[in-house]
Amino acid sequence: MQTRSEPLPPMQRVELDAWLDAGARALGLAIDPEHRTSVLDALRDAGAMAAQLGAHSLRPEDETAPVFVPLGPGAAPVPAPRRR
Amino acid sequence: MSATDSLLDGPAATIAAAVRARAVTVAALVEASLARIAATDPALNAFVQVCADRARQRAGELDAQLLDRHATAALLPLVGVPFAVSNTIDVAGLATRAGAALEQERAPARRDAPVVARLEEAGGVLIGATNVDALGSGATTESSCDGPTRNPHDLARTPGGASGGAAAALAGGQLALSLASDTTGGLRVPASLCGVFGLKPTYGRLPRNGCYPFAPGLDHVGVLARHAGDVALAYDAVQGHDARDPACAVRAPEPTHASVSARIETLRIAVLGGAFESLAGAEARAAVALAAEALDVRRTVELSGTTRANAAAGLVVLAESAALHLANLRSRAGAYPAGVRERLIAGAMLPAAWVQQAQRMRRWHALRASELLREYDILLAPATPCVAPLLGTASLTLDGVEQRTDAALSALAQPLSFIGLPVAVAPVWGCHPALPVGVQVIGAPWREDLVLRVVHHLQSSGIAHAPVASVSEAALRAALRA
């Protein structure tokens, strides 16, 4: 499994615009035109963070930090008794 | 200054001892704390809600119990000690607003968070809730809808954040203990900039149910105080499993106070270099050097991948916080503070592959730290890259790169909460003409006892201390005019 990739070049404004529009539609978010530039800046910053990770080798056996723990019957909250 | 006022400036342990010896009543301590708040908070803005009635009622109950010489109240470790909690932590009857305009209509909490209830069971007296950055997101306490908190040591400067009010209340002498949240440095940054001691325990050590979530995978709750021993006392009081917090570890309490003054000569200690050095300014590096000298530490080691871990932490925080707010972002985006709103929207749009890679990097980074902690019991690093910036500072330059002030102030704290290690902050003075800067004392998971022992040693050796700021009348008037 290939886990290392060359860092991608920073996204161009037109690409960030397309990402924002598609993401907003998929998530049902209405982006106020006044907020648009700042959201694009935040997406660009997030892309820069992701680029730092992409340049690092991770092996297939490098699992994610959160590990699911199965829950037994004692884990569920006991429902409050119904009022009559 | 009255004897009660002097007592309020001293250690929580001394306050409790005076109450136990009937040298002061809890009622007098509560009134002294409320009077300090009334005198200084118009300038500091550390508090968002004061629960005077609750505090007076609790004081009356404790004083009545203490009239009986055999009362168990006299045995409580923090009997009569006034404390506050960040307004991200539930207090029965108060609204947990987390500094956010969109939470202004939130109903009052129906019960205390477990950490609040436990501190009161240990004898503490809750005075109120302190200011935080909006939604717990920020590092300056300037984005709060309740207005900015000011640093008691220089009213023109930030106290740090997100839990800036909790640290400012201590540095301003308003009370003796605070509880606060820490996701990417929310407790440690204010401890550093306000010059108080703090402990962010191991991830999963303290129950966070009843606490306003920001990024649950990194959210912690911890303790602030002006004395290292008080941090240990309060931390011991709030330990214990609570199954209602899915991250809370099933571990019995492991008390620290009894061993906080134990010798440290056998501990293997090193300074963290690499990014922890290159991102720090001269004053922060000098603070670490002073601490290292006091601890006779000569080794510098590197935690590899710290810069990448910071980037990974940023992605995880963005994704987790966005998921919490997605419904509100659809219907009430206008109610979010500028800056936070845009980052949350961007966080909702991150490709899943990025977030998964960030979570894989998190484990990789934790394993690198594990390797270091096999060789060393304690690691030292600056808590913030600099002393408190002026309020309104938009950006800081770290190692030649300009960053948002919030991100810059958290840059040395975030990589450590990302991997959940216990970190205590020791406030070091003398590296700047008038301001403190904190040193992070980092341990292996579940070794809060060792990090507290080291900060206690730094306080005993005079390297670290947490003086009450002298907030002059003139400074108060000037701040109020501004």
Q: Strands, helices and their partners?
A:
The complex is a heterodimer of chains A (84) and B (482).
Chain A: H1 13-27, H2 33-54
Chain B: H1 3-9, H2 12-20, H3 26-44, E1 47-50, H4 52-66, E2 82-86, H5 114-121, E3 125-130, H6 164-171, E4 177-182, H7 188-194, E5 197-200, E6 220-225, H8 228-238, E7 269-272, H9 275-278, H10 282-294, E8 300-301, H11 306-332, H12 340-348, H13 352-375, E9 378-382, E10 395-398, E11 401-404, H14 405-410, H15 414-418, E12 423-428, E13 437-443, H16 448-460, H17 473-481
Parallel strand pairs in B: 2-3, 2-4, 7-8, 7-9
Antiparallel strand pairs in B: 1-3, 4-6, 5-6, 5-12, 9-13, 10-11, 12-13
Helix pairs in contact in B: 1-3, 3-4, 3-17, 6-7, 8-16, 11-12, 11-13
Give the structure's gist in a few sentences.
With 84 residues, chain A is mainly alpha-helical. Chain A contains two helices and no strands. In chain B, strand 2 (82-86), helix 5 (114-121) and strand 3 form a beta-alpha-beta unit.
- Which assembly state applies to the chains in this document? heterodimer
Structural class by sheet pairing and helices of chain A: mainly alpha
- Total strands of chain A: the figure is 0
- Percentage of residues in strands of chain B: 5-15%
Instruction: Profile the largest sheet of chain B.
Output: 11 strands, mixed
Rg calculated over all Cα atoms of chain A: 21 Å
